[in-house]
Amino acid sequence: MRGFAARATVEQAISWLNSVLPSFAELPTEMVGLFDAATRVLAQDVVSGVNVPGFARSMMDGYGVRADDTQGATAYNRLPLRIIGTCLPGTPFPGRVSAGEAVRIMTGAPLPDGADAVLPVEQTEPDGDQVSVLDPVTVGKHVGQIGEDIRQGDVVRSTGSVLRPQDLGVLSSIGVDRATVVRRPRVRILITGNELLPAGTKPEGYRIADANGPMLSALVTRDGGEPIVPGIVPDDPVQLREALLEPADVVLVSGGSSVGQEDHAPRLVAELGELAIHGIAMRPSSPTGLGRIGGKLVFLLPGNPVSCLCAYDFFAGRAIRALGGRLRDWPYPRIRVRLTRKLVSTVGRVDYARVQLRDEGVEPIAISGASILSSTTRADGFVIVPADSEGYPAGADVDVFLYG
Ligand code: AMP
Ligand code: MG
Q: Residues in domain MoaB/Mog (predicted)?
């Protein structure tokens, strides 16, 4: 065993990542059906082949009329119109509206020929097979014009957009039933540790359940990746080597990332490819490694669950989002809040401090060592203390990143 000779700064690690990311080939595209397309990244502009609406339609329940016939109407000067039929959504009126006539019309129904406005039912009163106009309308009133929502040829969503629920509604409304999207980066999650039992197993004796597998899998999914979770890999160099060589776009190794005698991953990555960064001036997560094996980016994440989460957030998540065509920045909302107690940090390393929101502000979580996973569950978010800072006094305003 040998300790870390020197630690890279967080900036150095991120700039190495930024420098290699462009050399990773753009992921291929794939087609997905509308019902599977939410949260995917568009790889092609979506251009409308149709006008929406494709016909002049009524925006109100009322009567299709000629606006001219309603001019001068008031409650004291009611103008009668003869009702000659009805038109419903999907069922147009077959005839034509002439002077002195009206057609009953419902919202979404096509405006009949001859009519040029919709007279809302509130501006009328029934009168046998006639209707009395109490209030006039102008030409085009309450009529949705052809293409007023979307014009044929409009780009409704452009390359690189993340598809939101409302985007799927728009795609559907222009008759598009699938989208060309960026393939999800495939992220192989290698959980190492002889002490580990499969996720969700009751801890027994000296063995503990894998906390990082389900956590990383959820983080990868959040960041648009496709997690591949082959099960626990023992602390055995032969088996770990094989697992590292399996196909993927990104490999996350949980545990065994440091300089202990069971920590094989750093040496194997250096042997099979490049271990560009090993040991980072940050807390938690200092035994983090970044490298590549052929066309795969490899992240060595410490086994301590808090360190694992923090190292994922600082480096791996950023890369997975970038590969999948997403924004690299953290997906956490940021708020500015007053510290209720001081937050102490050591100069020379970046601190990832978990905090809780209180009525009076935000409070650092007292017991917050890297092995205390519940510190992240109790936390509402975290504060980053930069390397050149000794922390913040009580009362200082700090940026808090809120966990989703
Ligand atoms: P390591 O990074 O392998 O040295 O592990 C550091 C600490 O984290 C040890 O106490 C491990 O037992 C623990 N640990 C490692 N992997 C996991 C995991 N997947 N889930 C929960 N704890 C873990
Ligand atoms: Mg271990």
A: 188-322
